[in-house]
Amino acid sequence: MNLVFLGPPGSGKGTQAAKLSEKLGLVHLSTGDMLREAVKRASELGRKAEEYMKRGELVPDDLIIGLIQDKLRDGELDGGFILDGFPRTIPQAEGLKQMLENNDINLYKAILFQVDDEEVVRRLSGRWYCPQCSAGYNYPAQMPRVEGRCDNDDTELQRRPDDEESVVRNRLKVYLKQTKPIEDFYRGESILTEVPAQQPPEKVFEALVKEVSSQV
How confident is the model over 103-127, as pLDDT tens digits? Predict the structure, then answer.
């Protein structure tokens, strides 16, 4: 079972991908993790990717697709995979499709996690963390015992710059412009399915498992 997870930032697709990969024995392919692993292993593609990363530039699509192809060739993905964070654009989706077809591999489903914009803003702008122990908090779902202080060491909580409301809204604009068209791409491939992700994570997971199981 090979899956692509789609959805705006804050939709919870990374969390759900990790849970589903554990339950079904699928490999969870996060773009960032793949790049860091390739750089650490100093593979040929990893060295090329590192050059772009050191300059603060986006790693080209063909390099990322090449990393996925390497894993396919090595047999790491024989039991199925979940792609999380890729593809993000139509050219990436088309490149991925071509590479998979060249390897006689089909995507089973592209699963869209549906969350409205204001819920995304609420979730992301409500995220805080402890700079001392890295504990995470989320207002109002997971609040510290003392407002603005870490439960573990009483350190003043901070918010990451990309979780500021203005930045979150800009990230949503980028998503709508670049990534949302992929929904129509996979709808045209007749493999898009939607999961309501507005509800609590455990309910989302129940809906996800039901959706995947119903298609087997």
Answer: 999 999 999 999 998 888 888 888 8
Query: In Å, how far are 76, 93, 119, 169, 176 from 96, measured between CA atoms?
Result: 17, 5, 30, 28, 20
Active site residues: 13, 88, 127, 160, 171
| CATH topology classification for 2-26+79-214 | Rossmann fold (3.40.50)
Q: Residue 129 carries which DSSP code?
A: E
Q: Which phi and psi (to 5°) does residue 106 adopt? A: -110, 145
Phi, psi of 100 (to 5 degrees): -65, -40
Quote the tokens at residue 154: 């009483």
- DSSP 8-state symbol, 175: I
Single out the residue of 117, 98, 114, 95 nearest to residue 106, CA to CA.
98
Q: Are 34 and 83 in contact (CB under 8 A)?
A: no
Domain limits, the chain: 2-26+79-214
User: Quick check: 71 and 77 in contact, CB under 8 A?
Assistant: yes
Flag whether the pTM goes above 0.70.
yes
Alpha carbon distance 147, 83 (integer Å): 37
